[in-house]
Amino acid sequence: MDILADWEKIRIHFSKSFRRNLHVAIASVDAENNPTTTPVGSLFLNADQTGFYFEKFVTKLPVNATTNNKICVLGVNSNRWLWIRSLYEGRFRQYPALKLYGELGALKKASDAQIRALARRVRRTKDLKGHKYLWDDMIYVREVTFTKAEKINLGKMTRGL
């Protein structure tokens, strides 16, 4: 998969994945080379193979970035009908899962545009009590630069994608 040529397809996949799962999994490696994954519900992909996420609850990613800033992001589209239809047809018509490889960048104060993007994503929960606890004070983002994309191989089911 070519990260430049297929970037718009990648962005669409991650958007669909987020709608179903409400998060992606970001893998990193600590100073002792132990792998760990972190669920992140605020990853946004920009138009230029970069992205950002709000760094409020993540604890391992910023610590791991001090010794190794490389990450892998897994986005799985868990749409039940996608999987049932694909199992019935014997093949997927669209990617069931993708991995993005990249590097964590600087932590910085979120821009107004980034805060608006988060507000759009969580707007349906704005009247719920937990909304305030989770999203009212999201003010810092971590930038990410992506360098490689990889389709998940499920044999004959994903051949031709």
Could you write a compact summary of the structure shown?
This is Pyridoxamine 5'-phosphate oxidase putative domain-containing protein. By secondary structure, the chain is an alpha+beta fold.
Descriptive account of the structure:
- The chain has one domain: Electron Transport, Fmn-binding Protein, Chain A (Pnp Oxidase, Chain A, Roll).
- It is built from five helices and seven strands.
- The chain has helices at residues 7-21, 60-65, 80-89, 112-121, 129-135, and strands spanning 24-29, 35-40, 44-45, 50-54, 70-76, 97-109, 140-151.
- Strands 2-1-5-6-7-4-3 form a seven-stranded antiparallel beta sheet.
- The longest helix has 15 residues, at 7-21.
What secondary-structure arrangement, pairings included, does this model have?
Layout: H1 7-21, E1 24-29, E2 35-40, E3 44-45, E4 50-54, H2 60-65, E5 70-76, H3 80-89, E6 97-109, H4 112-121, H5 129-135, E7 140-151
Antiparallel strand pairs: 1-2, 1-5, 3-4, 4-7, 5-6, 6-7
Protein name: Pyridoxamine 5'-phosphate oxidase putative domain-containing protein
